[in-house]
Amino acid sequence: MTELRGFALELFKSQLENAIGQENVITSEERRKELSRDYTWLTHMWYERDQEMIIPYFVVRPGNTEEVSKVMKICNSYKVPVVPRGGGSGSAGGASTLHGGIVLDLTRMDKIIDIDEKSLVLTAEAGIFGNVLENVLNEKGLMLAHYPSSVDIATLGGYLAARGSGVMSTKYGKAEDMVLSIEVVLPDGTIINTLPVPNHACGPGLLQLFVGSEGTLGVITKVSIRIDPLPEARVFRMFKFPDIHDGIEAGRQIMASRIKPAVMRLYDPGSTDKSFNSTGVKLEGNHLVLMFDGYKEIAEIEAKKAYEICIANKGEDLGEELGKHWWDTRYVAYKPPVHPEFPLLYGTPETVTTYDKIDAIYDAKKELVETKYAKWNAKYTAHFSHWYPWGTMIYDRFYVEHPPEDPEEAFRLHNELMADCTRINLDHGAVLNEHHGIGFKLGWFMEDQYEESFKVLLNIKKSLDEKGIMNPGKLGFGIW
Q: What is the dihedral of CA 257, 172, 300, 316, to 10 degrees?
């Protein structure tokens, strides 16, 4: 990578302005600082404590794929880092500018290109925000059944860049399961399209190579993705369990029965408190929210079978109102600004694994956080929100209400907690992450996760990005 100064930097800026217009090359220091970080706790803490930040030369805002291609050609020739950015809602540092360069802000690319109501396929530019997209679809009786908690501040391209999960993923799948095809601009400016459908026997699929690549291999500019009809009915319920492991077993049996809840979210006592208190409901203990949707008769039959499983596993039926309350207020805790106020320290070492491992992971991480870090009065909370036929994910967090005042010490404490929890995940046969992505936060564990196969990923990266300009320092790829 090249550090540009003086005349060379002005020349670089002139070429960008010529390519996409002077008004779309943002030089404001305030704006550059704002977009140098995403929602990662580490970057916000560092900024709040007035520590030195590496900010981009410019924020560059292309208006279409051709302009993205022009920008990439210019940056590639100058060997300048490019950090693609949607809404910046990620919590793993994927959109943070660790090595300067430019931020490629895609939010001008926000057009819906086509809604195919016969095939139920939406085609749109990658920079459209989720809530805007959902409002348009709902008016047509349709939905993009992704529904992440970050829907107000995340973009369609961002959903795919980090393999995101929405609250209804248990039935409808993650973003990676919904996508049919994408358009990508490579580091040298080449524009490519994956095959028009995801299921085929036409050799290896390039689609899933770019999905989840967090801008390290190219820039996603256009997306074709499955949409669904709005359901005729939604049926809600909440159950309380005496022990979190009873709730996990109930969830496992529901999935093993091949019943398809649209929502199944199991909260431990700490997560119950944090998730419901902000919505005006006081609950204590372990709680499971269920929602079934579709045709009313089918949803009610599936719900009845699930309720029987919950009761057989010591679940106490709390009725439908609390479940519906959760649905109606599900975004309250995530409205911007979504971060708990400083100086609170927190991190999310979430993972996904098979059912035979998940109970032990919960117990091990809870004991580690609240025992090893007792001098900091560290707390551990978890919920289980995305379920599969073979296993489930654990969305867990550690909290330290009074971390060190010194930013370097706070930085170190956060990373020690994250590393300890992550090693428990890997030691138990789980993976680094289910839907927040890797960024720089977990990049240093990628070789441990992939072992010898990480070399394959790195070789693919080097083949596509010979100069190492694409989002350097993320996914464990380092810089060159």
A: 70
How large a percentage of the chain has pLDDT more than 90?
92
The pLDDT assigned to 126 comes to 98
Distance CA 324, CA 313 (A): 22
pLDDT at residue 40 tops 60: yes
Beta partners for 122?
Answer: 115, 225
- For residue 332, is pLDDT > 90? no
Closest CA to 148 of 172, 130, 162, 122: 130
Find tokens 């019943």 and name the residue: 259
pLDDT, one tens digit per residue, over 262-287 is 999 999 999 999 888 878 889 999 99
Secondary structure class of 47 (helix, strand, coil): helix
Task: Name the residue among 341, 417, 410 with its Cα closest to residue 379.
Answer: 417
Task: Give tens-digit pLDDT for 245-268.
Answer: 999 999 999 999 999 999 999 999
Structural tokens at position 182? 């994408």
DSSP string, 195-254: -SSS---SSS-SHHHHTT-TTSS-EEEEEEEE-EEPPSEEEEEEEEESSHHHHHHHHHHH
Q: What is the 3-state secondary structure (H, E, C) of 310-330?
A: HHHCCCEECCCHHHHHHHHCC
- Are residues 314 and 246 in contact, defined by beta-carbon separation less than 8 angstroms? yes
Q: How far does the chain reach from its first CA to its final CA, in angstroms?
A: 7
Question: In the 3-class helix/strand/coil scheme, how is 389-442 assigned residue by residue?
Answer: CCEEEEEEEEEECCCCCCHHHHHHHHHHHHHHHHHHHHHCCCCCCCCCCCCCCC
The 10s digit of each residue's pLDDT in 409-463 is 999 999 999 999 999 999 999 999 999 999 999 999 999 999 999 999 999 999 9
* Amino acid letter, residue 402: H
The residues that bridge with 395 in the sheet, in sequence order, are 383
d(CA 389, CA 177): 15
Q: What is the pLDDT, as a whole number, of residue 456? A: 97
Residue 315 has pLDDT above 70, yes or no: yes
Integer CA distances (angstroms), 132 to 135, 180, 245, 356, in order: 5, 21, 39, 40
- What does the alpha-carbon distance between residue 126 and residue 230 come to, in Å, rounded to a whole number? 23
Burial code (b: 16+ CB inside 10 Å, e: under 16) for 338-364 equals: eeeeeeebbbbbbbbbebeebeebbeb
pTM of the predicted structure, to 2 decimals: 0.95
- Phi and psi dihedrals of 11, rounded to 5? -65, -45
The residue type of 284 is: E
For 159, how many CA atoms within 13 A lie in the half-sphere containing its CB?
36
Bridge-based pairing state of the strands 58-60 and 102-105? parallel
Backbone angles phi, psi at 123, to 5 degrees: -120, 125
Give the pairing type, strands 82-85 and 102-105.
parallel
